[in-house]
Design a protein that fits this description.
The complex is a heterodimer. Chain A is of the alpha/beta class. Chain A has three domains: about 70 residues; about 150 residues; about 200 residues, Vaccinia Virus protein VP39 (Rossmann fold, 3-Layer(aba) Sandwich), CATH 3.40.50. Chain A is built from 15 helices and 16 strands. In chain A, the strands form four sheets. In chain A, strands 12-11-10-13-14-16-15 form a seven-stranded mixed beta sheet, sandwiched between helices. Chain A is globular and about 75 Å long. Chain B is mostly helical. Chain B has a domain of about 25 residues. Chain B is about 80% helix and about 0% strand. Chain B contains one helix and no strands. The radius of gyration of chain B is 18 Å and the shape is rod-shaped. In chain B, about 35% of the residues are buried. The chains are: A alpha/beta, B mainly alpha. Chains A and B meet through helix 4, helix 7 and helix 8 of A and helix 1 of B.
Amino acid sequence: MALRKSKTNLAIDPASFRDNFGFVYHEAGGFLRQVNDAGKTAYDALMTSGLYDELTKQGLLVKHTELPAKPADGYKTLRPELINFISYPYEWSFSQFKDAALATLQMQKLALAKTMTLRDASAYNIQFVSGKPQMIDTLSFEPYKPGEPWQAYRQFCQHFLAPLALAAHIDVDLTQLMRVYIDGVPLALAGKLLPGRSLFNPGLYMHIKLHGRFQDRYSEGKPTGQTKTVSQTQLLGVIDSLERTVKGLQLPKTKTEWGDYYNNTNYSPDAFAAKQGQVKSLIDSVKPRRVIDLGANNGAFSRLAQNAELVISADIDPMAVEHNYRLVKKNGETNLLPLLIDLTNPSPDLGWANRERPRFDQRAKGDLVLALALIHHLAIGNNLPLEAAAEYFAELAPNLIIEFVPKADSQAQRLLAAREDIFNNYTQAGFETAFSKTYKIIKQQPVKDSKRIIYLMRKLGG
Amino acid sequence: MRHFAYLDPAAGSIILQAVIGAVVGAGYVVRRRVRSVIDGFKKKQD
């Protein structure tokens, strides 16, 4: 399907159609943002109030430059700094989600200090840039009118507070509800799901349970003719209450399958160090700009690609991704993006016409895929044909570093312990035959103190 | 001042903000005062 065109034939991004203040469009491999005449007042206020300078200084808002030429049917054209990867809330760890929520509230507080306000609080407006959350929608700010409530309050609660509360109080996997509810988790639903004890938390009770009830109560009534005003102090009180509620949400100490993987492997410390050396040398031989590490766990091997511009460090385990993100924050790493991705069911195309939020493999294009200690989970754990795995990896990048884990390995034995071994082709020869349909094997090296083999492969014709 | 017609879920959100704002707004002011007194005291000690 071709991109929708503006009146002046600009190719509008499929995620940019709701806002009458402007839109994002594709041009020459990059993105530009048009400010419509309707967005003139808000944009000028953002720039002249000092809010833009403050937010960009703190790294909370994407920087842009104004193009000199006025658009044919709008006010201004902006060239935002390029975001190197667009991720979505259902791909974030708990702490990423929480930091995105706190960044949104911080922006609203800074905005109010400059007599501005955030007019939406969509989690999709936040991206992780150089390891930190950043707002990418420059047109989300408008002048604050005294007495006016925060129009984005409901959206904030649905996009951030409800999924975080469900993750903290029921199960960390419940952030995945954002996949189902594209405009955030309905508050009435969140209120029903949250356990009774969680509602002793006044913030959760007010902003979720009571909020859901108020929404129900006023959703079908007749206009009452009433108006409500909220003073700025009251508004700051609401923001402060939201902030304290979000800050108070913590993940329970749960043990997940892979959350502690590297303390529980079948490698000796020497073998682990040797494997890291091997992988680093193979990565360096490819000199990748963008790396996609699949099954990255806490990112121990992702970090070997330190010269890459971007390393997408993806794993199925929410606690492993959480650990990875905490390391990114602790070390101040700017090129590593931990993401929660189930390779057997990666993020699909979602939203309006299934084009608003593109699927993972459409966004994740790189120079090198790392697939270490992964193939046995796909082939034995999920009955995935080896050829299918090779084809999928090849869609992401032309180079592949992959570790073959034979059946004799204790980790593969764990997978086979409770099931019949129907995987006759899962041998080194079978693996090489299957992958040779898509790749040329460039190098292969045994991993020290194990029967595993690491391969460097290049896509045929790539 | 904008006038809001209470016809959709957003209307409930707006009314609730006024209610919550009235409850937590005063607490927010008190906390800010206390914080500024503590900060002032710390500055004096420095």
